[in-house]
Structures are given as C-alpha cells and as structure tokens.
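User:
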Amino acid sequence: MSKYRMYIDEVGDPGLHSLDDERHRYLSLTGVIIDLDHVSEFVHPQLESLKQQFFGNHHHPDSPIVLHRKELVNGVRPFESLRNDELREKFNATLLDFLLTADYQVATVVIDKVEHVERYRTWRFDPYHYCLAVLAERYVLWLDRRGQQGDVMAESRGGKEDMRLKKSFNLLFNTGTDYVGADKIQRTLSSSQLKVKKKDNNIAGLQLADLLAHPSFKNTLTKSSKSNTTVSNAFGAKIADILESKKYLRNASGKTLGWGAKILP
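Assistant: Predicted structure:
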C-alpha cells in the first residue's frame, strides 16, 4: 500500500472584515495529493536540481533556497537572476515541464465570504473550516476509491492561524462532515493530527503547493464566473492549463468544476 500526503497552501484572507474589498472577499485552500515515495524519488530531487541549475550561487544544503511564487514572480533575492528575460524563459520552461511531468492531483476550494453572508446571514464555522471540510472530503473519497491511506500537511502561517487549521482538522476527523462520516475519515487518514510545517524547512510538497495555489485560485474564480478576474499572467495561465488538462480531481465524466475546482457556498 502506498502512503499519500495532501499538502495544503492558502491564498486570500481568512478574516471576516472589509468583505466589500475584493482583496478580502475570498479564502482559498489548495491541496496537492502526492505519493510520498514519489516525493522522495522525483519531486524533491527535481526541485533541488532546478534550484541548483538556476540559483546555484545561493543554493547550499546548509541554507537551501525555498521556492516562493511571489518572490519568483517579482525576481527578488535569491531569485534576482530571473530579471534577465532569457534566463526567466528558460526557468519557466523547466518549471512547467516539471509541473507537467510530476505525478500529483490537485483540488482547490474557494469560499466567497460575501455570498456566504448574503445566503446564510451567519457563520456556523470559521471560513477555514468550510474550505478544509470540502478539501478533506475530496481527499478521503479519492483515497478510499483506491484503498489507500494518507495524511495532511499545511504550511505554517503562525500561532493563531495554525491553531485555526488544527482545530478544524480535529473537528473533521472526530465528527466527519455532512457528506463523509467520521468512520470513513478515520479509516482513510493515517493520522488524527494535521501536520503544520514552515515552508522554510525546504519541504518539496509545500513548495509545489505554493507554486500552484495562486494560479489555481484565480482559475477557479474564472471558471465559476464569480469574478471578473482572470489568471493574472501568461505563465500563471500555462500552469492553469496544466491543472485543467492533467492534474485537477474530476468526476466520472471528466468535469473539474465542482470537483478539482470548487467554489463555496
């Protein structure tokens, strides 16, 4: 039996303030499901090779470079070499090839907090919980269909935010969701605890989730017609194309909207 892990990255705002501001309206969680053997044998070595190839002057085992989408896009240290257009094109092509070749599955859940308030008037749970519940359902059902088990790791955001995620995960594990019972969750997930780690620990799966989360968030909004937004740049659009063609979870007829790309409520 293989052992899987879902790596989670967050985009947007988990708070309930200033919802009329588009920057605070949405919260998105993206989960990247990978066989842990594949992480060890392919994902981690390939990412380390990419770092050495393009940023070798900064990359050392004692102080490894950690890939962050925002810093890569802006070309800030240690990625300042990407300000060179020719080098950036080569880097983008190499990264896209990796994203296409690596074996993983993706689900993104976005909650529109304005529409939630308009529809329900109140919050039964934290916005994190709504997104995590749907993400966990898809992961558990995916594992169950394959007779596999797995655990979950999220990027650390700091004490208070980490506690919100851990609290939501514990509630899901112990009580289940409206659609997936606790017995199935406990049978399928190999740990009752959410693993929370800083991306600076050079965890390959969290770096992969970071690279995918923002393009997938934008793509989910675009697909759902909830917003006039589009994937923010040509490179992000190419990542979204890879997700659509190969990586999103989908139903039996191949539909991704509502499965690998889900918007709430």
